[in-house]
Input
Amino acid sequence: MSTMQTTRVLPAAPRPHKNPRDRKSVVLTIAMWACALYFLLPFVWLILASTKNDSDLFTTFGLWFGKTIALFTNLGTVFTYENGSFGGWLLNSAFYAIASALGAVILSTLAGYAFAKYRFKGSRGIFSVVLGSIMIPSTALALPTYLLFANINITNTPWAVILPSVVNPFALYLIRVYAIEAVDDNLIEAARIDGAGEFRIFWQISCRLLGPAIVTVFLLALVGAWNNYFLPLIMLNQSSLYPITVGLAQWAASSNAGGGARVLFSTVITGSFVSIIPLVLSFLYLQRYWQSGLSAGSVKG
Amino acid sequence: MTALSLGRSNTPTPSQSAQRRKLRATAYAFITPFLIAFVAMLLVPIGYALYLSLFKTQIIGGSTFVGLANYLQAFTDPQLYAGLFRIMLYLVIQVPLMLVLAVFFAFAIDSGRVRGGKFVRLAIFVPYAIPGVIATLMWGYFYGNNFGLIAQLFRALGLVPPNLLSSQNILGSMMNISTWAFVGYNMIIIYAALRSIPHELYDAAEVDGAGQWRIAWSVKLPAIRPALILCLIFSVIGSFQIFTEPSLLQPLAPTTIDNAFTPTFYAYNLAFVNEEPSYAAAIAFTLGFAIMIVSYVVQLTAQARARNS
Output
């Protein structure tokens, strides 16, 4: 991506451009709201389905309430089934996601900043290797990593999920691109003349200027780790270590398999509903950061 | 981490070369933690997979060196080709469709002509927050022919519902899940690029008498090209990784989704169901290599186009 064309210099914060001549278009508004409906309907369905018991799920219309409101029964089952493993899965997911994202942020901020602001031998070569590795799909890499981890006996530990996730070449790339723009060389030089050490400059000046990019990278890594299924699926085989994705998938498999000991569909659905609440809320709350950080990575290159 | 305090000394540097040496040492200290993790979590596993892929593991007799036999097997494996063919369909149908939609949504919202555009933008983006597992489970419930939501809607309209899990439709049903989940992410990247186009460019174009369509085509589209290439490359990589959809839809459509439906699903089943880790490593390696080639070709073509236009 290093060869991507730079179109122009990016302002630190994209300013809104409102055109007074803009009129609202009825056709476009209707079309876009119809599209929004398509993206939102699954959520509506999920909320309604969480209030139904198993028989209502299959006999009543999906986009309206069932005959009975079983939400609290369902929630009770979700959190008590199999000695409350669901709560543990949520905590595991939170722990893996936060640990992976923190690790990714620390490593890629330090390195991305160094690639942007220091000149050193091998800088170009190392950076191109790291950049090229963005192309390596994580699932193709996960299997080799599993085979390696199995050999040194660290599968089935939290490390097996966290360690591969802290290496995030795209995060490094975003930080580097953002640092080139946002951290002024004159500012660093002035701090040096004032006698500030390099790490102090990084910590007290540069990190603040890199704020939006750091938050974006943290969010990207957090969502990536929280939503990851393949890596924990192959690395872990003990229910108490599962993140929510693997746990729910296992419940779903059990509900599809049928039989006496199966998990109820209503439990899987209510569990899905509960597990997306934290991420959806944080998305709504933090969405402006997505835009500011991603614009740096996509406009420049 | 202790190496980081290296630059902390407050003593003034005697000469410029000493200063330069100090800066270089700082730079290496800053990149070292990342590089260690990079080597350990990327290069070492790849090397190990390469090594493993040269052996064949038997239940009796352990593993024996077989050279490139696993790769030869992969190149003539019809199941692998069938999976790769499905990925190719994804690349030529789902990826362009999703990116066109993402560009359309981004342009529509950026134009300011949509009432409640901010809400619409969020609505399109929010599926990205949903884990693939849950997205697939939900859509799986919608696709079911007897009680699924889509079948319910068709029946309510007096129509015969299509079998969305049949062998003809299953790939399209999966493409729909991927599009639902990721179009918003791509839209946000393109929208962010659109927002950072300086307004003077529009003014200049308008002074020259360009209409809105003309501005969209001649000013906005070229300006978002780097963003679009980024989206394209990530979508290509994403297509090769499809695993969650076949893995979770298989119980609903056991006869249409086989164990080699996508290459990643195939590699997983080889490693954990068939217990052929060496062959799985060879497939993973071939796959990673294929993706890098496709990504580079995509990037080079995009750049060649940019230069020609």
About this structure: Chain A touches chain B through 120 residues (CB under 8 Å). The domain at 82-299 of chain A is CATH 1.10.3720.10 (MetI-like fold). Chain A is about 70% helix and 0% strand. Chain A has one domain: 82-299.
